[in-house]
Every structure is written in structure tokens, then in C-alpha cells.
Prior knowledge:
79% of the residues lie in helices and 0% in strands. By secondary structure, the chain is mostly helical. It is elongated, with a radius of gyration of 18 Å.
Amino acid sequence: MRYYITTYRNTFRPGHTLSGKQLAKFLLYSVVVFALLMGLYLLAWQVVIYTPVVDYLTAPGARQFSLYAVHFFQVMVLLPVAIHLLKMMAAYICRK
Length: 96
């Protein structure tokens, strides 16, 4: 997990690029992190269901919140992958 966090931080450093193999490894770690975030999200819903807060939730509100949460997790995980991919392609094109 230390590799993922270091690579995530290096996403926003301009001089740091990844090779294709490193990018594939980072993508696999990103999928695992997304699965863990979704698991924590579902666990949080289980906690909410068994508390009195559920009485104040409406179905459209819960659905909208779920949609926003999933989109937020996707952006948090896939945006660094896209940035690394663009940096890798730019480095490859500039070398030629």
C-alpha cells in the first residue's frame, strides 16, 4: 500500500512519469482501493440503517447520495491514473 500512496502523491509532480508496467501496477492497486472504499461505504450504510437516522431518509435522497458517493470514489481513484497515463504518453511523444 505504501507504493500506491507514494505513486498517488507523485501524480501531481511534473517530472515524475511511470513506465507501462508501473502504470499497470498502479491501475491494479487503484481497483483494489476502489473496492475497499465501496466496502467501507456499504458498511457505513449498514450502520445508518440500524440507527434512527434512517427514519429521516427518503428514497430519492438516499439514491442521490449514493450516486454522488460512487462518483466521488471513482474520481478519487481514477483521476491520478488518467494523469499518469497522459504524462506517460507526453513523455513518449517528446522522446521521439
